[in-house]
Description:
13 helices, about 400 residues
Amino acid sequence: MRPGQRLVLLNSTWSSDSLVGDGEEGRGGGDVVAALLDRVAAEFPVDEYRFAAVLHPNIWHGHGPGQIRAWLDRARRGGLALIDPLKGWRQALLAADAVIGDHGSVTYYAAALGTPVLLGAAPLDALDPDAPISAFMREAPRLDHETSLAAQIEQLIGGHRPLAGPAEFTTSVPGESAVRLRRLFYAMMGAPEPGRPASLKPLALPDFEPGTVTLPLRVLSRVTGPGTIAVTRWTGAPQEAGADGGKEAHVAVHEDTRDVDQLDLADVIFRNGAPGDPRFGSPSAWTAEVLRRHQGCSLAAYVTGPSVCVVRVRGAEPLRVAATPTADAGDIRGADPAAYASALYAWLATGSHDSAAVAARLAQAVAEGLSVRTGARLHRVRVEPLAPPAEGAPEAGRPLTG
């Protein structure tokens, strides 16, 4: 997750009536998740939303991990995080800004936490009408398949008012479970409690998952002022594509894409990696090689970290593009640096394509930097010449010989 991104969690229990169920005759089921993921690509910009899926362990057991990953392969290449059903679901639930779920317990836990919940599957006739979850299913908002999913999520989050029932039925004494359960267990054993305070093991920080998008990106950009560019990136055909407002479009493609035919159509080609990875010689060498191999590409970008990339514009020397630290304790977390590369491309493509005019705009970017807007956030970005290696030192990433 990056600052400014919203995390939407897809959660499914196991049954034919669940979010990933194929439905039973008479219930109007269908694979809701497949339909949702098709809409995600067209409706949600990748720099503003992140999606994750928590599936019941029995789904993994029944179909097998390989089949689950195969079904969700395209969505994962679009940035979907597939959460471990045993180790990571609680952390994902705590981080979620909204949950699209069903009648499973994890969806109910989300509501108990006060997280906005949208029901993608709600089989009321499959539940005990007197059960607390049945009351919740009758009250919670439901997914409308006929209207914009993005608009529903915005409305869900913006107008959210937590339902009282889930929290009340989950616990009447929040924060006291460790003390009360230990007291009960030791009383049942007839043994004295330890003198030390009762405590719970904290949840482990999950492994970092960058969510690298390898599907081709359709990028809409608009120059809103001198050196200021708004960028919106999509993994599908953007709904805004036909809208007026001075927006320009280009294609940005990760080098590891499986849609290899798109590389020769890309305006921007990028990749992620360590700057010293010997397989690529160096970021400078890689960017030069990409522009040599793909003559239709105008800019190559090697993302070397969470806030920085090395870019090379055709016919120019390599540059370092990096986020400027904010006032928040020097925080440099911002947008995906590949979005900065697309912003630089859009800035250089503004106005005349005469080589002198492009060179002048590039010089201005180096002198003054850029302001890049993704969604509601504005990022200040430095554009500077790539520092050459120290005299006598090998270029970063170039293996030593001899």
